[in-house]
# Entry
Amino acid sequence: MEEPERPSKSQRKREMEALQEIGARLVELNAAQLAQIKLPERLLEAILEAQRIRDFEGRRRQMQYIGKLMREVDPAPIRARLDQWHGAAREHTASQHLIERWRERLLADDGAVAMFAADYPGSDLQHLRTLITSVKRDQTAGKPLKHYRELFRAVRDIIVKL
# Structure
């Protein structure tokens, strides 16, 4: 009868590094996020301690300890929760970029308002045109960017509603 093959040393090392990486992501979380993940008490204490450590070498050793403690837990639910948060953050960033692109397009091209209206029917076009005019006036006069931010908020409100 053959013995099942043990994972190679390289494979075990990759697995340990993956657990340390999850631990590093846990250290980056705030207290409210950590409370949402079921973690053993020792691991949670180690994470909180790592957040307090500022010395490079001390933090590195603490991260290795967290990686060691991670071997005792099932990393799948933790990884899933972290990926879920990361995905939400990525979606938010993509949304912000879309809003910024529309703002810049509206300021650069006079025909962009019609394109915006076609993509987002029911938009208050008069309000957008007023804001665009105000932003351009502020830019030429060298005034603060109050209307520039207002235009961003107006575009965001329209896009988020859809």
User: Anything to note?
Assistant: The CA atoms of residues 72 and 92 lie 34 Å apart. Residues 90-161 form a domain with the Diphtheria Toxin Repressor; domain 2 fold (CATH 1.10.60.30). Helices lie at 9-27, 31-35, 41-52, 56-70, 75-108, 112-119, 125-141, 146-161. The chain has two domains: 9-73, 90-161.
